[in-house]
Amino acid sequence: MKADPDRVLRDLYHLRKIGTYKSGVHRPTLSQDDITARKWLAGQLADIGHETCIDGVANVFGRAPGAGPHVLCGSHLESQNHAGWLDGALGVVYALEAARVAASDNQLVGRGVDVIAFADEEGHFSGDFSFLGSESFVGEISEEQIDAATDRSGRGTLREMLAKQELDGRQRVSMEAGRYCGFLEAHIEQGDRLESAGRGIGVVTSIVAIWQYRITATGFQNHAGTTTMKSRRDAGRALMQVWSAIEASFPTVCGPDSVWTVGRVTLQPGQPSIIPGQAEMVFQFRDADPDNLNRMHDALTRLTREVDAASPCALELEVLAQSSPAHMAKGPKDALQDAAQQWAPDHYSIMPSGAGHDAQVIARHIPSGMMFVPSIGGISHHWSENTSDSDIALGAQVYVQAVLNLLAANSNG
After folding, report:
1. How far apart (Å, rounded) are the C-alpha atoms in residues 171 and 181?
2. CATH number attached to the domain at 209-322
């Protein structure tokens, strides 16, 4: 049994028409287009005999018949605002295809594929959680956390948006203990490593941790024309000294896959003729190796203290988040690598994921694996995001084969 690439492409191109924006889509969580896509998926799953629902946080869940064991497959359906058509949708359609293949294979004897499209992996709603749908599925989100969540673009609260789509008050689906022998998620890479290496498949070893900080410099606001350079307490300059020190020092302490980013800088009061009295920078770094993470943390702490000691301004370093890396389990990872070797011999890479995914949540509870297909130009979170049809087709074959490998490895027969 194998995937039907034409069917996979047909499904993906159908979803591309739901919320079309230029060559991508605009399908934010709980928008009408998002709900249309979710209802389409629920219908497709019902057609192959799955018990299907859209739950109280908008997760779409399709439960396969049979005593098991089962593999859980899925990703997400919503998009970033005015962004790409494959981010999330590719993994959901691959999961649907795996469920179809498994449902039509009489040799699987009760084994099958449950499919889930997690809600709001893209983070349209802010709250005391990172991944609404997957964290809800594994029981890590309370009703109180849902009560407090609001849409980042001002559409309303999460409760209001759920009520608008007639989902508030529905039972939330929970992962059934002992049902799954593994979870597999497929995704576009969202980077350029595969394309640069000429590879069609990425077998993921781990999903990076993200450590995020706020660095604040406090000086004294004053006139930009009459205050001498010697007497200034320029918070902006102090903050830039930290930034410059980071760029000089981090290459000496990071790992080969480490990345770091200054994502936001604000100056107060932010006027051309006023020396900033306060400046703030949000800084993050990512890696899957705890030793690298700790070295970068220590370097950041040291650099901030050094600038604080030498500057007329006061520097403060605040930890905003320190997640843990998620390592993919041997069973699912081997199933993916064997499938890649079968369908793309010497045409795949073993690699970490530099972006966060629902798989890192599920990996805390059941053995999980993840695979990538190339992103053209390394572009994602933009409407020009794309992957060639041939790479999509190859990825579908590898993914479905990996699911069948995992089911075979966990046969009760």
Report:
1. 25
2. 3.30.70.360
